[in-house]
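Researcher: Next entry in the queue.
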Amino acid sequence: MNNTGRRQKADKPNPVDVHVGSRVRLRRTLLGMSQEKLGDAIGLTFQQVQKYERGANRIGASRLYDLARVLDVPVSYFFEELGDNSGSGSQGNQATEPFQSNPMMKRETLELVRAYLRISDPQIKRRLFELAKALAAFSGAPAVD
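Model: Structure for this entry, 145 residues:
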């Protein structure tokens, strides 16, 4: 930090900002919304949305409120799954790895869930679910019910 209390470019983003940004990305992707469409809805460019999603730019309270409204979630949604090791007490000394390694935050996972939710036939949904479980078992993954 410099003497004004602002982050310098070389500093890493605060883990809380990274987490909140990843929750924005998760919800936006689950809704099938582009960064450009989200930006248009709240008066930003898609580049600004990208910076928010990476945690490079901190999201202010009024902007967070706008995001919650457009993404149809409560403001508290952005802080869910935020552990006590968020680094809020020590400016950026905590690693952001726990948020980035979460498989639920990966684009592939989100797209798979969105595709699954678009299937209207319950029998096809059930067969796909059983297929996924069989493939996981075949690959040696432990069984989960």
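Model: Residues 122-138 form the longest helix (17 residues).
Researcher: Noted, moving on.
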